[in-house]
Design brief:
Length: about 200
């Protein structure tokens, strides 16, 4: 999917529209998961209207199963469908209202000055925001982080990004429970999901 063209999204009674955020795929040449092959893998599990957005692991699908069931199925299938360098590939499954809440409940002004700040939504899996915040050691005048519901909002001054301490989160055990999306990608995902949800009504 190129962000502009979308396949017809199935209008099936009782089907839920989900966004699946995959952690750790197609990063630094590791855990290569071609999006076309991912689509086939998920369709083989019985999910319908599977479509992807860019290669960082963003998948939309329709299912009559719960978000928890979808997560478990996706996480179990990926090591079977692909040869992965790291088997710790996790998924965060969101409904459209949940994704919308992430954006609506952002800190005041967050993401509104893209020329000045680089802003990210750090989605959490199996860890709450209060606990995950211990992984961060923001540098004064460069970094800022805020806890949210199932997400951490991270912002750093673009001109000082080489001084940012955001990369230090990789040393925390909580890093394996996080997947990061730029704010521009996050808001674009909501736009797409709202369109898909409307088509599925």
């Amino acid at each position: 999917m190129d962000g502009t063209c979308r396949p017809f999204f199935a209008k099936i009674t009782g089907m839920n529209t989900y966004l699946v955020l995959l952690r750790g795929v197609n990063v630094g040449g590791k855990n290569k998961v071609p999006m076309a092959e991912l689509k086939k893998c998920l369709e083989a599990l019985g999910f319908s209207s599977v479509t992807t957005y860019i290669a960082s692991g963003n998948v939309f699908l329709a299912s009559d199963k719960s978000a928890e069931e979808v997560q478990a199925m996706v996480e179990a299938a990926l090591p079977q469908c692909f040869r992965l360098d790291d088997e710790l590939i996790r998924a965060r499954v969101l409904t459209e209202p949940q994704l919308r809440a992430v954006i609506e409940n952002r800190p005041p002004g967050f993401g509104e000055q893209p020329d000045t700040y680089h802003s990210d939504a750090i989605f959490l899996m199996g860890v709450d925001a209060k606990e995950a915040m211990t992984a961060f050691s923001p540098r004064e005048g460069v970094d800022q982080v805020w806890p949210g519901d199932g997400v951490i909002y991270s912002q750093r001054v673009s001109a000082l990004r080489t001084k940012s301490r955001l990369s230090k989160i990789v040393d925390s055990p909580h890093y394996k429970s996080m997947t990061i999306r730029s704010w521009a990608t996050t808001t674009r995902l909501l736009e797409i999901m709202q369109s898909l949800s409307a088509e599925n009504e």
